[in-house]
């Protein structure tokens, strides 16, 4: 049995009367891509927020690397090795692409309470950051402010930042959204290899990508996981077809 | 990008040389008043460079920095008074008239006061942060007014300007040079902070705190550190201001003063290295020139401020040197 990296048990979160997360249990094991699919408003982003620490669940547990992360804020969870990308890109927009990645490299190296050495002359920051940009194909755009990057480039930059953290798990919220077919195809190939570095919890609407990549799929509807299984099991699950795939099939 | 950087550097160098040359010339021509004016610019600029760390780099609009400016002023006034009267301060500790010692005390006091103020204020953001910093500063203001030991409402005179090794601080030009040197030092500190890892995190916290937290850096810790450093620098400027005027009073602690420091930064260009210098130059010159013509000179200051906010967000430095470059 593969090692469980992330273990979610009976998680619940309500917004008023709306049960956005309604008793979700889910695992992420080493080496896998676990896709989380479901219609808009099913609670996928809300779940990612609770794992990453930007929302507090009402009840339930989240264990990461065997440790209950309940008391940890977003920054502390990131330091433990949880790297996330946001559904709508969240970047330091005045900073260049390079400086956005350097921030992650700097965080990984330890304390940011260092006051003297200029970061742009610090090869221990610039070189790894450049390498990450090159990996996602953004090397040429390294010095462009994030505010001036295209939508697709922002998505790539988010991935580069996550990579630079050297994480133990990735939480990717619709990384392909708005990327175009060529971009999606390239990102699919990229994520395919990435699972060897760290397992990926992948929220994605692009079904071609999901079926190509996922080792397992969980289907979320109205805050509940209605099915978890291998690609073929999910494709052929009548309940899933009715509740979700039916809409697009 | 390269050109914008050098244009800003050229602008900064010009301003630095101008601020040095003007009082040298005035002194040579026997016009000490203008030396005092330049000193006022240097000291206010230093106070604003301090605030610029929190406000410009960190986006923390502190409306309470007069607290630190005033505490620095009182550090100078109180230590000098005790030294003058040869009365120990407390626990047998003597006063002092040595500027470096006073600056050290000002920094320590301001740092110690800024720590709890920041720790509370930084739990909030936006307009609440502005109001809480204002409230803390007003508390200190009223405390100073109602504490008779050091002059209360009337303030405290410094009969002899405090001393600096090998410098005749009583004369205008040498005192200016001390203030100018400290301003340059403050600017060096600002630049080092801005370009460092700490500065990267601080500026990221301003742009997008969620992004900063998502890479594992807690925005609160970074901001609190910035707030404390910022207060310490403004405190040193306060000590100089008291020495410049031979006087410290609660007005140094008032919200007008906090507002004035913010205005200097907005005028000059927030977050820009020489923004506070440009802002202080414009402010003091307006105050002098227009103030000589009309008591309502602040009306024109208001117009200029309006113009800057509407048409030149980067302030004077932004107008001359173009947009900020982040490398
Ligand atoms: N902060 C919030 N306050 C109130 N309702 C919210 C909040 N965030 C999300 N919701 C609601 O929770 C449900 C799940 O949203 P979300 O997790 O974004 O769905 P998904 O990512 O699957 O599209 C939606 O109905 C959404 O409107
Ligand atoms: Mg979503």
Automatic annotation (TrEMBL), chain A:
Residues 6-247 form the ABC transporter domain. Gene3D superfamilies: P-loop containing nucleotide triphosphate hydrolases (3.40.50.300). The keyword Kinase does not apply. Keywords: ATP-binding, Nucleotide-binding, Transport. One of its GO terms (molecular function) is ATP binding. It comes from the Bacteria. Pfam families: ABC_tran, BCA_ABC_TP_C. SMART domains: AAA. CDD domains: ABC_Mj1267_LivG_branched (cd03219). InterPro entries: AAA+_ATPase, ABC_AA/LPS_Transport, ABC_transporter-like_ATP-bd, BCA_ABC_TP_C, P-loop_NTPase. SUPFAM superfamilies: P-loop containing nucleoside triphosphate hydrolases. This is ABC transporter ATP-binding protein. It comes from Chelativorans intermedius.
């Amino acid at each position: 049995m593969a090692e469980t990296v992330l273990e979610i048990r009976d998680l619940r979160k309500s917004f008023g009367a709306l049960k956005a997360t309604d008793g979700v249990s889910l695992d992420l094991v080493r080496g896998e891509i676990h896709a989380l699919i479901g219609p808009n408003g099913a609670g996928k982003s809300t779940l990612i927020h609770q794992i990453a620490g930007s929302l507090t669940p009402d009840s339930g547990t989240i264990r990461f690397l065997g440790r209950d992360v309940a008391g940890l804020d977003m920054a502390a969870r990131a330091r433990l090795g949880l790297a996330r990308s946001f559904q709508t890109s969240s970047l330091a927009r005045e900073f260049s692409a390079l400086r956005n990645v350097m921030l992650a490299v700097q965080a990984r190296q330890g304390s940011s309470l260092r006051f003297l050495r200029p970061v742009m002359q610090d090869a221990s920051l610039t070189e790894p950051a450049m390498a990450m940009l090159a990996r996602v194909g953004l090397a040429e755009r390294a010095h462009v402010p994030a505010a001036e990057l295209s939508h697709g480039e922002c998505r790539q930059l988010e991935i580069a930042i996550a990579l630079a953290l050297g994480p133990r798990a990735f939480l990717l919220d619709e990384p392909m959204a708005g990327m175009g077919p060529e971009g999606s195809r390239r990102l699919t190939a990229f994520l395919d290899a990435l699972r060897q570095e760290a397992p990926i919890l992948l929220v994605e609407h692009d079904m071609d990508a999901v079926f190509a990549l996922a080792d397992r799929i969980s289907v979320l509807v109205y805050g509940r996981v209605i099915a978890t299984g291998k690609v073929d099991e999910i494709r052929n699950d009548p309940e899933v077809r009715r509740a979700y795939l039916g809409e697009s099939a | 990008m390269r050109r914008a950087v050098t244009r800003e550097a050229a602008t900064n160098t010009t301003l630095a040389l101008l601020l040095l040359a003007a009082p040298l010339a005035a002194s040579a021509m026997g016009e000490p008043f203008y030396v005092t004016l330049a000193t006022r610019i240097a000291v206010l600029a230093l106070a604003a460079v301090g605030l610029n760390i929190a406000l410009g780099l960190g986006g923390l609009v502190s409306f309470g920095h007069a607290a630190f400016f005033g505490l620095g002023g009182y550090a100078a006034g109180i230590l000098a008074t005790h030294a003058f009267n040869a009365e120990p301060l407390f626990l047998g500790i003597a006063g002092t008239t040595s500027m470096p010692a006073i600056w050290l005390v000002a920094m320590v006091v301001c740092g110690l006061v800024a720590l709890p103020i920041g720790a509370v204020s930084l739990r909030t953001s936006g307009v609440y942060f502005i109001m809480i910093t204002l409230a803390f500063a007003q508390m200190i203001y009223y405390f100073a007014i109602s504490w008779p030991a050091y002059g209360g409402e009337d303030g405290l005179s410094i009969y002899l300007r405090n001393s600096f090794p090998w410098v005749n601080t009583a004369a205008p030009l040498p005192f200016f040079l001390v203030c100018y040197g400290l301003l340059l030092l403050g600017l060096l500190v600002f630049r080092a902070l801005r370009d460092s890892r700490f500065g990267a995190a601080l500026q990221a916290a301003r742009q997008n705190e969620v992004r900063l937290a998502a890479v594992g850096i807690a925005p609160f810790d970074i901001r609190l550190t910035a707030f404390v450093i910022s207060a310490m620098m403004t405190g040193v400027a306060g000590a100089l201001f008291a020495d410049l005027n031979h006087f410290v009073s609660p007005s140094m602690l008032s919200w007008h003063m906090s507002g004035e420091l913010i205005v200097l930064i907005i005028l000059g260009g927030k977050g820009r290295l020489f923004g506070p210098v440009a802002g202080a130059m414009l402010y003091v010159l307006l105050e002098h020139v227009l103030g000589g013509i009309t008591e309502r000179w602040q009306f024109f200051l208001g117009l200029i401020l309006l113009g800057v906010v509407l048409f030149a967000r980067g302030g004077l430095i932004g107008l001359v040197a173009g947009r900020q470059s982040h490398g």
